[in-house]
Design brief:
alpha/beta; 2 domains; 7 helices; 12 strands; 26% helix; globular
Length: 261
């Protein structure tokens, strides 16, 4: 099976969803969660209701649930990812609500103190119209005084990290993952090609091979600031990497915090 991921595609992550946590096992979710929580506590310490966009299998939402007295709703465009999140939540006796939602066209009859989106999810939006739709949609779901925080990676990030993204490793005793990565600097498109090989129980015979290509657009600091200026929202802060230092055009990863204009 071969597929290209798109947030408008109903089968996004369909094959990768059950293996996603194994693929992402090297990500320091704990530090990332503490960073997001620190931003929330700094900019909106009274926040209770949280909405996560592109929540994947729900790892960060589940961790944030234990950080404070948050009431969390997790959303993702992939039904398969939400299904995995619900399974994990059931095992943890979590009270998180899970919904299948497109970040550009949210349809939730509720406003939230905080909307957040991390793990480069913005980079899956490939043109300004999609970014504009996201910001408009979030603005319609923010409570008075609410904040939206999100991160994205810049062209310099792709250039630096590219050599580390080509690898082959076992993600389970029966699954081998091959990842190759390439970056089109002219189009500013980053391609991650995943090949998953599933073997039989003896680990010898190959039973299935499937492939997915994830395409992300890198954005500059100035481009995203301009989209915010054209939106119903206004910029409160822009942080570099996983610090509370001010971001610049040279930053590799930027976390933006915005509120109603």
């Amino acid at each position: 099976m071969v597929g290209q991921t798109s947030i408008s595609d109903g089968v996004i992550y369909h094959k990768l969803a059950p293996l996603y946590d194994q693929i992402m096992r090297d990500v320091d979710y704990e530090d990332w969660t503490e960073y997001v929580d620190s931003i929330i506590q700094y900019h909106h310490p009274g926040a209770i209701t949280l909405l996560e966009l592109a929540c994947g299998t729900g790892t960060m939402a589940l961790m944030l649930e234990h950080c404070d007295h948050y009431k969390i709703t997790g959303t993702d465009a992939s039904e398969s990812m939400i299904a995995q999140a619900r399974k994990k939540a059931a095992r943890n006796k979590s009270g998180i609500r899970w919904l299948v939602q497109d970040m550009r066209r949210l349809d939730i009859d509720e406003r939230f103190d905080v909307v957040y989106m991390v793990f480069d999810s913005l980079n899956y939006l490939h043109d300004e119209r999609e970014v504009d739709a996201l910001l408009k949609s979030v603005a319609q779901h923010l409570a008075d005084g609410g904040i939206f925080l999100f991160d994205f990676t810049t062209p310099s990030h792709s250039t630096k990290i590219l050599p580390y993204l080509n690898n082959t490793r076992n993600i389970t005793p029966r699954h081998l993952m091959k990842r190759s990565s390439s970056y089109d600097a002219e189009q500013r498109l980053h391609y991650n090609h995943f090949s998953i090989i599933k073997k039989d129980r003896t680990g010898g015979k190959i039973q299935e091979t499937f492939r997915e290509t994830h395409i992300q657009k890198t954005w500059s600091f100035s481009e995203i600031k301009e989209r915010i200026e054209e939106s119903p929202l206004r910029l409160l802060a822009a942080y570099e990497d996983f610090e509370l230092d001010c971001a610049t055009e040279d930053s590799d990863r930027i976390t933006m915090v915005v509120t109603h204009g």
